[in-house]
Amino acid sequence: MNAPAWNLRDRQRRERLARAADALGARLQGRLVATDAAVPLLEAVLQPGDRVCLEGNNQKQADFLARSLTQVDPARVHDLHMVQSVLALPEHLDVFETGIAKRLDFSFSGPQGARLAKLVSTGGIEIGAIHTYLELFARYFVDLTPKVALVAAHAADRHGNLYTGPNTEDTPAIVEATAFSGGLVIAQVNEVVDTLPRIDIPADWVDFVIPAPKPNLIEPLFTRDPAQISEIQVLMAMMAIKGIYAEYGVQRLNHGIGFDTAAIELLLPTYGEQLGLKGKICKHWALNPHPALIPAIEAGWVESVHSFGSELGMEDYIRARSDVFFTGADGSLRSNRAFCQAAGHYACDLFIGSTLQMDLQGNSSTATLGRITGFGGAPNMGADARGRRHASPAWLKAGEEARRGRAGAAGTPRGQKLVVQMVETFREHMQPAFVETLDAWTLQQQAGMALPPIMIYGEDVTHVLTEEGIANLLLCRTDEEREQAIRGVAGYTAVGLARDARVVENLRDRGVIQRPADLGIDPRDATRNLLAARSMRDLVRASGGLYAPPKRFRNW
Amino acid sequence: MNAPAWNLRDRQRRERLARAADALGARLQGRLVATDAAVPLLEAVLQPGDRVCLEGNNQKQADFLARSLTQVDPARVHDLHMVQSVLALPEHLDVFETGIAKRLDFSFSGPQGARLAKLVSTGGIEIGAIHTYLELFARYFVDLTPKVALVAAHAADRHGNLYTGPNTEDTPAIVEATAFSGGLVIAQVNEVVDTLPRIDIPADWVDFVIPAPKPNLIEPLFTRDPAQISEIQVLMAMMAIKGIYAEYGVQRLNHGIGFDTAAIELLLPTYGEQLGLKGKICKHWALNPHPALIPAIEAGWVESVHSFGSELGMEDYIRARSDVFFTGADGSLRSNRAFCQAAGHYACDLFIGSTLQMDLQGNSSTATLGRITGFGGAPNMGADARGRRHASPAWLKAGEEARRGRAGAAGTPRGQKLVVQMVETFREHMQPAFVETLDAWTLQQQAGMALPPIMIYGEDVTHVLTEEGIANLLLCRTDEEREQAIRGVAGYTAVGLARDARVVENLRDRGVIQRPADLGIDPRDATRNLLAARSMRDLVRASGGLYAPPKRFRNW
Question: Which Pfam families match (chains A, B) (predicted)?
Answer without folding.
Answer: Mal_decarbox_Al
